[in-house]
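We treat protein structure as text, and this decision shapes the records that our systems exchange. This encoding replaces a full spatial description with a residue-level series of whole-number codes. Below, we set out a record of this kind in full and without editing:
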Amino acid sequence: MRLQTVIAIFLSCSLKSQPDFSDGFSQEVNPCGYEDNLLQVNKSPIQRQYIREADVAWEKRVWRELDMREKLNLPLYFPVDFQACRVSLFQLISKHVLKGHIVAFADENYYKLLSQEAMRNKIIETKEIDEITYDEQGNESSRVITSSDSVSLLAKVTKVRIVEDWYLNKQTSTMEVRIISMGFFEYVEEKEAYKELFWVYFPSITKYLAKYRLYNPKNVGDYSTFNDVFMRRQFSSTVIKESNVYDRSISEYCAGIEALQESDRVKYELFKMEHDWWHY
């Protein structure tokens, strides 16, 4: 009886000395890292406050271009292939467009709605390949098969165009900005030019942008989403047009270094407008 008591006490102490695996980290290996949902998060976009037309003291529309190959924009561009734990901006949007969650348009003014078939033709490249087979006697036969490729386009879409409205809010006495449209452009190497793919209404995609985490090279545990990047203005861009009486872009009257200086002038005037609002 005394021996049984000693064995029971020994087993009890041994069980208590075992490490606690209740955190789940050591129970299974996650390919995406420590967090279970490294790609998708349960976030909702912040609802924009309603602005009365009477509260807008001043307004200007600005067009910007984002080159996703720039250093600050690289998290928007990569990966250029399919991965389980990361997704690019174009891959995110095109995925939900093909599923019918997001409506795509052929132009920034939403005049022409693109059908699902038209979007598949733009995003998925279809080729016909001759396949050669041999039977048991060594006789050769060929047939034409259809191959679909939706990966090569990810590396070609390098430019994003944004249309946004800047305005002065009289209620808060601050300069505010709201993104209206977002367009994606494919670089055609043979023509050395960009081809317009499609446009989306930005307020309609924020709930999807807020559900995917953006890769942070300095902190892989960061929970910032694609929506956070655009709301916080954490991207590099160049102004290509501002609303004007001629309805012309900067490239129509400036070129080279002068176009960059004109772009900086527009950015400075937006800053100066808010500064002068507080000048007494």
Observations:
- Strands lie at 56-67, 104-105, 125-134, 140-149, 157-169, 174-188, 193-201, 238-242.
- The chain has eight helices and eight strands.
- The helical segments are 2-16, 74-77, 89-98, 116-123, 152-156, 206-209, 226-231, 257-277.
